[in-house]
Amino acid sequence: MQKRIYLIAILSITVGIACNARAQAPVLFDGTNPIVLTFQSAAGQSAVPADDVIPRSLLITSDELSKSLQTAKEKPLVLQIGPHTLYAQAHIPGAEFMGATSGDEGKQKLRDRVKSLPKSSAIVLYCGCCPWNHCPNVHPAYQLLHSMGFTNVKVLYIANNFGADWVNNGYPVAKGD
Amino acid sequence: MCLAGLYIYSKRLPPKAPPTASGNIAPEFTVTDLDGRKLSLSDYKGKVVLLDFWATWCTPCREEIPHFVEMQNKYGPQGFQVIGVSMDDDAKPVREYYEKYKLNYPVALGDDKLAERFGGILGLPVNFVIDREGRIHAKHLGATNVATFDDEVSKLLAQP
Question: Which CATH number describes the domain made up of A26-167?
Answer without folding.
Answer: 3.40.250.10
